[in-house]
Amino acid sequence: MTSLPPASSHPAPPPGPQPRPGTRRWDERLGSIAYGGDYNPEQWPREVWEEDVALMREAGVTLVSVGIFSWALLEPREGEYDLGWMDELLDLLHGAGIAVDLGTPTASPPAWFFHAHPEARVVTRDGTVLGFGSRGMASPSSPAYRAAALRITTELARRYGDHPAVVLWHVHNEYGAPVSEDYSPTSAAAFRAWLQDRYGTLDALNAAWGTAFWGQTYGAWEHVGVPALAPSVVNPAQRLDFARFTDHQLRACFVAERDAIRRYSDRPVTTNFMAAECPATDLWAWGREVDVVSNDHYLTAADERAHVGLALAADLTRSVAGGTPWILMEHSTSAVNWQPRNVAKRPGEMARNAFQHVARGADGVLFFQWRASRSGAEKFHSAMLPHAGTSSRVWREVVALGADLARVGELRGSRVRAQAALLWDWESFWAQDLEWRPSVDLDHRERVRAFYERLWRDGITVDMAHPEQDLSGYPIVVAPASYLLSRAAAENLTRYVEGGGTLVVSYFSGVVDEHDAVHPGGYLAPLRDLLGVGVEEFLPLREGQRVRVAWEGPRSAEGEHELTADVWSDELVLAGAEVVATYLDGPAAGRAAVTRHRRGAGTGWYVSTRFDVEALATVLAGAYADAGLAPAGLPQDVEVVRRRGAEADHLVVVNHGDQPVAVPADGVDLLTGEPTGSSVKVPAGGVAVVRVAPTS
Predict the structure, then answer these.
(1) Fewest beta carbons less than 10 Å away: which of 4, 112, 173, 443?
(2) Catalytic one among 75, 174, 181, 427?
(3) What's the CATH code, domain 638-692?
């Protein structure tokens, strides 16, 4: 029998970006929280540039990103460079005391490139060849694209590597958006090479992909293709590997440009992630490659509680950064322009959004973009300087936010320490999203958000964590959606619980290994001994069906004893666990719904159905007790996050509600300069940043 590759090919993430010796700090001369946005002066005549710089100074702008979509102007014809306008721009900004995050323009190759290299165009899964006229990179596997990208990047690095305006390099733009996967012949050849490197032999590939099913066994490498559309469902292990390959190819493009820059510059290099919005990139791997983590975040207008999604994205970004300060590279002053209904932000919302990111570790707050575009696809996107000009409310709020961020500069460099970890694994999400799962209602995004919002409402600060990384510092770990769980991850979770941790595992977890193959021993097998329970059969519910659950364990403050749930249930087999909740009806009536099991010095909980955010208060109350935690008791829709510094701590209080609140905090509010007494008063929709005594 052919042996499979090692049980885990995904090393545990290190603690964030690793500083390179000799690399300058990006923020060393800014003096405060960086403030600014994307600046695209090439869209405007030269006389507007002087006006822009004057207004930037009025708004308190300290950092702008330039050149991100400028390839066609920087290299108007292949091998011919026109950098005079960039020289003028950088000198102008530097003279005004505004630092530059200099972009490589490789996210948008020029028309001449696609004319010369039509084979570099991306092909979709259904065979459509994507054309020019939008944004988005060429095939990341294209040798012609990589060569052209390295040429323009090298030219920029050679010329501006030590320019005094440049404090940071910004490679590409939002890798994986708007397209990531490429099914072109070029990509197919690269995929085969990647597979040969990963598996070594066809026997190992066939074993990993389970090709004996449906007669898919491969006898020659040239027979292996990309998982394009087929008459029925394509091999899920092949599709999972293609997702890994796509991530690898995108990251290889970044690394090549980064290394070209490093030959000429000692400034740090980043690229702007879309941590919660772009599922194509495994940011645990990307975080090891950048010098500083940066992220773009835009509210989902349809989400009436979008501020919770914002907090999740910020916590995820900080986690990818290993707890080090990071940069909010893009967000919006008001509405975006690509959603079905682009809802404008109301007075004060922009500042609340900005301070949420700062609270959760951002040392830079930037927008897309500085001046609203008159033409192009994003002309309805909001900006720091909107179409309505300097007489507008948005402009007044932009100026006020710049002043407020200058007042809280002492937060820079401080850290956030979380009380809980929520497991997050892009590879598991890729696998769960494939076809023919037991229920169309299985949604890892929904479960992650539900558990996260429960923790958020309870005032518990959360890190996201890979299931194979060290978890020993967290009193409680929640696994909302760990469908794919390697043996190494299961062993890590077992060590965590045996060492005294509290683990909460939701349904449809521990089902398959890294090849999307069901674990030997069946569903939940790698966690069975840890949780003291097994899953004999999945019992998904019909659309709209609900089940009643009797809560027999620790109750919430409201004293609830009967809960309702939907979507899912399991037929559980007890293997030492105690029952804390039982199904009253539905396909699992009379059987365990929630269990608790002591293992070593810790406790493992299993939740076999979908409870909403309200019901999760009851479910997590017992787990909190095991972990020695308790809800913070904050007013509704108020969040408080502590940033810890060497000389002082700072509480950032954001009130999303429509009533003023008082929150315990004895110190000085940096935004008003006033002492708080025993509590800080925060108006409806307001923010406070309170310097308090440091904690151990």
Answers:
(1) 4
(2) 174
(3) 2.60.40.1180
